[in-house]
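Morning, I've got a small favour to ask if you have a moment. I've been staring at a protein lately and its backbone has me curious. You're getting the sequence in one-letter code plus the fold written as C-alpha cells. I've dropped the whole record in just underneath, so have a look:
=====
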Amino acid sequence: MMKPDLEPLPLRMRNLPIDPRGYPVPWFVAWIDGQPDFRVMDAEQWRSAVKLRLCWVCGQALGRWLAFPIGPMCAINRVTSEPPSHRECAEWSIRNCPFLSQPQMVRRGEADLVDAQEPGGVMIRRNPGVTCLWITRGYEVFDAGGGKPLITIGAPESVTWWTEKRAATRAEVDASIESGLPTLLTAARHDGPFAVESLGRQVQIAHSYYPAP
C-alpha cells in the first residue's frame, strides 16, 4: 500500500511495485537480494533507457519532450548520469521523492553496497536543496573515461526550479549554486585554464535560466 501522504501516481507510474515503506519503486532501481535499493541504478535498465528511449522512472516509451530532474551544477555544465523521463513522472518524483523534495535529507550510507559502480564524472555528494527540471528534445551520450558513460543534455525548451514541493525562489537557487560551484571550479582548475574559462561561460549561460529575482 502506498504512503497516504504521497500524491496520486501519474498513469504511467501506476504499474510500478510499491516497497515496504509505501514508496513506488522507479524502473531504474536495482533489486538486490529481492529488495529494491534506491541508491543503485540498474546498469541494464540504463542501457535500455538510452537504446530504446524509455522513461527512467516508469520504463515506458518517451515522446518528443524529455525531462531531466537535475541539480544546479548539472544545469551549469549540462552533464548528468541519468537518462530522461516523462515530464509528469519527473514532476511527481520532484514533489514526492524524499531526497528531492526535502532539502534536509542526506544520502543514505554507501559503505554496505556490493558491486555497485560509481557513475562517471565528479559526483557532488550533497543534497543541493533545489532541483532543476530541464525540458529538452535531445541529449548525447559520451564516455567520461574508463568506459563510464555520461549524458550531455540538449538545449532547454523550458527550465523550472523546485524545492520543498514548490517553486524555488531566486535566493534559494543562488544559495545552492554558491555552495556547489567550488567543486566544479576545483575540477576545472585541475584541467587547466581553458577549462576554467569554459566553466565561466557555462555559469553565465546558466544565469539566464535562473528564476527571476
Remarks:
- The helical segments are 43-52, 72-77, 87-96, 98-101, 170-191, 193-207.
- The first helix runs from residue 43 to 52.
